[in-house]
Amino acid sequence: MRYALELSVINHQQLIICEKMVTKEAVIKILEEIAILLELTGENPFKSRAYQNAARNLEKLDTDFNELVQRDKLSEIEGIGEAINKKIKELVETGGLNYYETLKASIPPGHLDMLKISGLGPKKIHALYEQLGIKTIGELEYACHENRLVDLKGFGKKTQENILAGIERLKLYQERRLYAEVADKAQELLDSLKGHKDILAISIAGSLRRGNETVKDIDILASSSNPGKLALAFAELDQVASVIAHGDTKVSVTLKSGINADLRIVDENEFPYALHHFTGSKEHNTAMRGRAKDMGLKMNEYGLFQGEKNIVCRSEEEIFAALGLSFIPPELRENMGEIEAAAARTLPDLITEEDIQGLFHIHTNFSDGTDTLEGIVQTAKDLGFKYIGISDHSRQAFYAGGLKVEDIQRQHELIDNLNNKHAPFYIFKGIESDILPDGALDYDEEVLAKFDFVIAAVHSNFNMSAEEMTGRIEKALKNPFTTMLAHPTGRLLLSREPYSVNIMEIIDTAAQFGKILELNANPHRLDLDWRNCIHAKKKGVKIAINPDAHHIEGLRHTSFGIKIARKGWLEKGDCLNCLNLEDVKTYLRDN
Ligand code: DGT
Ligand code: CA
Questions:
Q1: Closest residue to atom 11 of ligand 1, CA basis
Q2: Of 537, 521, 526, 523, residue with least CA distance to 489
Q3: What pLDDT digit, counting tens, does each position of 463-488 carry?
Q4: Which residue puts its alpha carbon closest to atom 28 of ligand 1?
Q5: Residue 205 alpha carbon to ligand 2 centre in Å
Q6: Cα end-to-end distance, the chain, whole Å
Q7: Are 224 and 293 in contact (CB under 8 A)?
Q8: Per the omega criterion (within 30 degrees of 0), is the bond before 528 cis?
Q9: How far is CA 330 from CA 28, 90, 189, 335, 439, in A?
């Protein structure tokens, strides 16, 4: 926290505005910031220490600072040499300092945020940047989950755990959050409330019910025989840190996790209308109200009215039916054509958890996964899957323990043994091959031919132009050995923007060459984005909902991918891993 406070105290703008008032304290702050910024850039430590010393000596100064500046006597202070003297003069005379501004601009903005993680200083941040290219807190969190810090010089397992704990504390103040994180907390709230005897109906609403990839808050809707008592019970839940507002029909709280949660309590008869309204999205609601109006009706959270008279609906299904629509699943309520499709009875029969037969894109301890192949196989079997596709990293991904040719041989022997032991459960031999900057895959053809499937993935050189990156990926898609493209845009939700890539062109190329696109189910990625899934489906591109698991627990991420697949209008026929074992074998052999 120390660094963060220092860096937030002053900005250049403030200094300019207060030109006449550049005080000794302000100068000290800037010198201290420069020391930190220099460490962040990995500059010689002596340089950084010189600024720290200068700041400390200025602090101890008992003569009048302004007088020293006016008489040009600053360099008489110990530790203030010619270079620093010049900078202080520029600061005092102009209210700004070019050197400081340039230095600040040279650092990824995310590095300043990372200083807020307790236990993580500028030197470590620089080391993470140098060795792993980490620019933001989200990237750092992701790297910790992938165990990248365990073998990193100057870090280790304990440090990785401490950093993760520090990131958790920081999240307490965050605006939007990942779906997975909020969904867990919302479920806990529902579980705590469910036993309450005054509840007549209760449901999650808002973006969480719609399965959006990020969520602002938890919306809960209930009807109750004793609203006042339910409101009080909610406000007094163990999970609640503070109550923002408390009435008989609405309670707003902040949870200990930092997430805000609203409970709205409505009359039993109003529940279906309110549930539809507070599920949203706003855009869907607006379009629905428009449809109601066209039919001479009025729709709001209290009812569906013909003149003064309410059309009685006991469920959302009945509301949709009253408007001539089939039931629209919450995930589709984004005004992306769902109302027209519901009217035409052409809504998709959305994929469900039960449709998933097996999982691709799983890492083992052959590369950067934490668990053994045996352990993963046992868990996948226990979860009811019929097959898995193992894909450790390829050799260029040295930071992730990428497989050398002899490792592949060893892994394939192990897979053959396990396939004998666990039949009819089946393990496919795969690899997550880096797409090299020129679009080539990471092994020669003789090695690539040994795999049942190849997942091509961009893991380096993110900063290409859209044209170059699109060309690079398209080249990989055209490679006959490529089966599917991993995380097609490379985004990390809330922390790393997608790389520049023309995703529509990628979808078209995948369609043309019969390649599969991954819907990476890791809650930080959820990439392919659901908006693009709709497009891929239209083009006939198959999607693989892949957990990209680096540990056994990660297999469960698949359910987040399914939620997004549903938002992307996908049906079981659109997804590779809904095929049964024989059909997958045939598909992978023939494609
Ligand atoms: P979020 O919280 O940003 O992740 O997204 P939502 O969709 O949960 O938004 P929120 O919490 O502001 O409101 C919950 C639902 O309530 C929203 O999806 C639709 C409904 N709603 C809220 N405000 C309005 C409004 O001004 N107009 C309409 N038509 N619906 C609204
Ligand atoms: Ca919400």
A1: 206
A2: 526
A3: 899 999 999 999 999 999 999 999 99
A4: 282
A5: 7
A6: 54
A7: no
A8: yes
A9: 55, 60, 20, 11, 39
Secondary structure (DSSP) of 195-248: T-TTEEEEEE-HHHHHT-SEES-EEEEEEESSHHHHHHHHHT-TTEEEEEEE-S
Identify any residues that bridge with 396 across adjacent strands, giving them in sequence order.
none
Contact 320, 343 (CB under 8 A): no
Nearest Cα neighbor of 559 from 180, 214, 189 is: 180
Partners of residue 438 on adjacent β-strands: none
- The alpha carbon of 183 and the centre of ligand 2 are apart by a number of angstroms equal to 12
Interval between CA 206 and ligand 1 midpoint (Å): 6
Buried b / exposed e over 271-306, threshold 16 CB at 10 Å, is: bbbbbbbbbbbeebbebbeebbeeeebbbeeebbee
Contact 518, 543 (CB under 8 A): yes
**Which residue's entry shows tokens 């598909």?**
587
CB-CB contact of 482 with 476 (8 Å): yes
Q: pTM of the full predicted structure?
A: 0.80
Cα 525 to ligand 2 centroid, rounded to whole Å = 21
Q: Which of 400, 283, 301 is nearest to 339 (CA)?
A: 283
Q: What are the chain's domains?
A: 3-173 (1.10.150.110), 177-266 (3.30.460.10), 279-343 (3.30.210.10), 353-590 (3.20.20.140)
Residues 6 or more apart whose CB falls under 8 angstroms from that of 387 comprise 357, 358, 425, 426, 427, 428, 581, 584
Question: Atom 31 in ligand 1: which residue has the minimum CA distance?
Answer: 282
- DSSP annotation of 299: E
Q: Using alpha carbons only, what angle is made at residue 148 by residues 443 and 444, rounded to the nearest 5 degrees?
A: 0
pLDDT 10s digits, 73-89: 888 888 889 999 999 99
Instruction: Please count the CA atoms within 13 angstroms of the CA of 459 that sit on its side-chain side.
Output: 22
Ligand 1 near 211 CB (within 6 A): no
If you average pLDDT over residues 414-436, what whole number do you get?
97
Q: Is the CB of 300 under 6 A from ligand 1?
A: no
Strands (E), 28-164: none
Q: Taking a C-beta distance cutoff of 8 angstroms, is the pair 265, 222 a contact?
A: yes
Please tell me the distance from the alpha carbon of residue 361 to that of residue 374, in angstroms, as a whole number.
16
Q: Is the CB of 207 under 6 A from ligand 1?
A: yes
Distance 286 CA to ligand 1 centre (A): 11
Looking from the CA of residue 207, the nearest atom of ligand 1 is 8
Ligand 1 contact via 280 beta carbon (within 6 Å): yes
Least confident of 159-163, 496-500, 573-577: 496-500
Measured from the CB, is residue 282 less than 6 Å from ligand 1? yes
Name the residue with the closest Cα to ligand 1, atom 20.
278
- The CB of 217 under 6 Å from ligand 1? The reply is yes
- For ligand 1, the distance from its centroid to the CA atom of residue 300, given in whole angstroms, is 13
Burial 48-61 (b: 16+ CB within 10 A, else e): bebbbbbbeebeee
Ligand 1 close to Cβ of residue 278 (< 6 A): yes
Other beta carbons less than 10 A from residue 444's beta carbon: 10
Phi, psi at 420, each rounded to 5°: -65, -45
Cis, peptide link before residue 281, omega less than 30° from 0: yes
- The pLDDT value given to residue 213: 97
Which residue(s) pair with 392 in the sheet? 431
